[in-house]
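Run log // design_07
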């Protein structure tokens, strides 16, 4: 934790791990035990819980909370005001069991999306702004809506093959 930038208004607790080249901007809070990789950017007002894991080269825009049970692999983009939950049935009177949410390498989540806990967003997947993700999103898929539904292979990188591609850019899945 030597070559990084932490804005003076942010609170970074001792005992967390922050990789070289990472920038933590205004009013962020990183809890003891959190792990943040190299060359990440945490925008204004980002909260990272003590068991959260953030890989290398991640970009987290303003007003995002990465709660216990959430893992972001390398090269993930999280748009402004994305919401991650970590308890399926929250109650004020008792703590629920934290469920794991995994965002795989290269995935993108658009602004104001809500990610309900217990899902995996696949490698290079794209979640549209304002979506509510309640089920896993497979790798290389584009999904949006309330609830989010798989729309196409529109986010594929050129080097990837497209098994099962039918009817233009639509893919036959359980949801279509």
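design_07 sequence
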């Amino acid at each position: 934790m030597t070559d990084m930038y932490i804005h003076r208004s942010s609170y970074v607790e001792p005992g967390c791990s922050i990789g070289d080249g990472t920038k933590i901007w205004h009013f962020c809070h990183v809890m003891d035990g959190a792990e943040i990789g190299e060359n990440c950017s945490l925008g204004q007002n980002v909260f990272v819980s003590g068991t959260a894991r953030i890989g290398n080269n991640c970009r987290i825009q303003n007003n995002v909370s990465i709660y216990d049970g959430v893992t972001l692999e390398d090269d993930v983009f999280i748009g402004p005001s994305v919401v991650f939950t970590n308890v399926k049935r929250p109650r004020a009177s008792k703590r629920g069991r934290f469920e794991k949410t995994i965002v795989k390498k290269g995935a993108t989540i658009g602004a104001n999306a809500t990610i309900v806990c217990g899902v995996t967003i696949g490698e290079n997947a794209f979640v549209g702004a304002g979506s509510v993700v309640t089920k896993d999103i497979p790798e290389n898929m584009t999904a949006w809506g309330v609830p989010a539904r798989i729309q196409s292979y529109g986010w594929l990188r050129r080097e990837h093959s497209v098994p099962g591609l039918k009817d233009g850019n639509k893919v036959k899945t359980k949801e279509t």
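The first strand starts at residue 5 and ends at 6.
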